[in-house]
Amino acid sequence: FLTTPAHLYIRRPSPTTAEFTVTTCPPLTVPLRVALFSVLCVRVALVVGVVLTAYARLSPSPSSNPSSPSPSPPSSSSSPFLPLSSWDAVALLLQRWLDWLLASAAGQQCAALAAAPVLRPWWALGGVCGAAGWAAAALGRIHTTESLLVLRGLGIQTASSYGTAQGSLGGGGSGGSAMATTRETRFIPTEKIRDVLINEAFRGFEVSYCMVVVVDGEEDVVVVFPRLLPPRRIVEAVWRGVRGCLYEPDGGGSG
């Protein structure tokens, strides 16, 4: 539901330009948007929980004393920020926000977790917080999208991104803004491109097909779609389209 096998979208703005996008993100329907928003809320809750748990261990909560009143939400107007430096003011406001959150029901659960006997050693608490942080980061990499942009006479650009949702894709792809997306790109000028080939790669006992770009002056080839390594039919379609856009006058080879 949240992800699909790698599939290909082809966009041709002009006969001399083509973009090939391979993604695991399904079309962003309303149920999928709701699910992705829920995943984002879970990520935020995990991060806030880790921060509150560590803060409860480092600083005793004022709400742990039943006789002390619960702290009110911080207000910039009630804080004497004028005599303080900007960093001191930010630190004071952050501390008041943390104290207010720690006094809530969820904050009390984090404080109880920090005070649990099994988590009393710092290494145990650090392991739990690290696992929660890793889970929050892993939830941000649900989808992977890799693209190849071909510009005849200029060169090709490879891009790889991953996140909870990707930007709009051509050819009826998913739409919407990207959330928590990391993007890596590289541009190869036309004069540096010696050839575009399909190679066989061995992964264990399996044979995979990948498209590579032979770059002049570099010993290693550039692998296209290195994270997803799509199936052979997608690799062949992209290879035909790239060569058609680069070398054929009519930009043929639609794939």
Automatic annotation (TrEMBL):
UniProt keyword annotations, A-Z: Transferase
Sequence ranges assigned to domain Phosphatidylinositol N-acetylglucosaminyltransferase subunit H conserved in this UniProt record: 147-226
GO BP: GPI anchor biosynthetic process
Domain of life: Eukaryota
GO cellular component: glycosylphosphatidylinositol-N-acetylglucosaminyltransferase (GPI-GnT) complex
Gene Ontology MF terms in the entry: transferase activity
InterPro entries: PIG-H, PIGH-H_dom
Pathway where it operates: Glycolipid biosynthesis; glycosylphosphatidylinositol-anchor biosynthesis
Family named by the database record: Belongs to the PIGH family.
Protein name as it appears in the record: GPI-GlcNAc transferase complex, PIG-H component-domain-containing protein
Organism placement in taxonomy: Eukaryota, Fungi, Dikarya, Ascomycota, Pezizomycotina
